[in-house]
Write a structure and sequence with these properties.
alpha+beta, three-stranded antiparallel beta sheet, single chain
Length: 95
């Protein structure tokens, strides 16, 4: 018996691509790819960007399925999802 791997639809792929379609979100993806789990504050400080701005971008990355959130007390840790890892590796080919 042949098992079929779940193939993403064009609409699902579009969600991932739109999620990364911003220079700040690309920076976040590449940073978290390089460093691993990071809090919102760590991302904001490292990128020297307003916390509210980073929060909005991370929310879009989570919605697009590229970033995971894990609550740790009052902090929220962000890590790349499997698709986030693939996207970051793809983005690195342009550097």
């Amino acid at each position: 018996m042949i098992s079929f791997i779940h193939m993403k639809t064009a609409k699902q792929i579009e969600r991932h691509i739109r999620g990364a379609a911003n220079h700040r979100r690309i920076e976040i993806l590449l940073l978290v790819y390089k460093r691993g789990e990071m809090t919102l504050e760590e991302i904001s400080e490292t990128l020297d960007c307003n916390l509210k701005t980073i929060s909005g971008h991370t929310q879009k990355l989570v919605y697009s399925g590229l970033l995971n959130k894990k609550y740790l007390g009052l902090s929220v840790l962000h890590s790349l999802s499997p698709y986030g890892i693939r996207m970051a590796e793809f983005l690195k080919t342009f550097q």
